[in-house]
Prior knowledge:
By secondary structure, this protein is of the alpha/beta class. It has one domain (2-305): 3-Layer(aba) Sandwich (Rossmann fold). The chain is 42% helix and 16% strand. The chain is built from 10 helices and 13 strands. It has helices at 11-20, 41-51, 66-71, 73-93, 131-151, 177-191, 211-222, 241-252, 276-281, 289-305, and strands at 2-6, 27-29, 55-58, 98-102, 154-160, 162-164, 195-199, 205-206, 208-210, 230-233, 239-240, 257-261, 270-271. The strands form 4 sheets. A 6-stranded parallel beta sheet has the order 2-1-3-4-5-10, sandwiched between helices. The protein has a 3-stranded mixed beta sheet with strand order 11-8-13. Helix 5 (131-151) links the parallel strand 4 (98-102) and strand 5. It is globular. The mean pLDDT is 94.
Amino acid sequence: MKLFIAGHRGMVGAALVRRFGREPDTELLLRCRADLDLTDQAAVNAFFAAEKPDVAIIAAAKVGGIHANNTYPAEFGYENLILATNCIHAAYQAGVSRLLFLGSSCIYPKLAPQPLREDSLLTGPLEPTNEAYAIAKIAGLKLAEYYRRQYGVCYHSAMPTNLYGPGDNYHGPNSHVLPALIRRFHEAKESGAPRVEAWGSGSPLREFLHVDDLADACAFLLRLADPPDLINVGTGREISIRELTEQVAAVVGYPGEIVWDASKPDGTPRKLMDVSQLAGLGWSAATDLADGLPRTYASFLQESAAGLLRT
């Protein structure tokens, strides 16, 4: 199998490379942005036409936390929308019969019933702070669904919950909550700061999936002869931001005070994925947060020491 992984240098893409690199009959087809700009339609068309992969996983995306999504909605909307449409259409034109598009749990309405079921899609307003990103992801997954319906190709989508693990982005204001906390507590520990500020009230509930578990779920889904058009990927377990913050501080070894700034946005109050459909097919996550957090902090230290930390 000739497999194209779009976005192989990102956290998700790198996990996919680790996972599928172990498959003896899989040839990985990889391109960095300097060699293939996925927002350039002509370049994407030419790439697919020349390489003709058997399978494509679209893991490339412009991603960020609440601050980044809320500050740069035009960039998040445009880049993710054009990337998805370019890849899906070019794959079809090149005869790619199998494509897996990766979305995000933010596609679901802000106040959808919890846990979030796949059939909650498009039933209500989105969370305003990441609406642009969510709309682009919804467009991508629906386009995959429409190509499957009209042309008979097996194009399907997976919606992972909040991800963490090696290769995450640790940019201060623009990163997701977990890597932001790791960096903040690490730097406070190193500098001897007596307190660390945390955003919001700490009350929102979130679910976290180790990125290597997501990669394994993708391998599982690609083995299915008739996968669902859309399926959630998560752990089915949630934790409050306050408890997560305290756990990260403990893993990092930060002894100081945590101060909560309630003037900062909380985002969606609760976001737990209903993973019963995937569990019914025979897959479940293997990594508990209690194991994944220390491993992720160890990766942070290694990446920092090697000068490879994404900031």
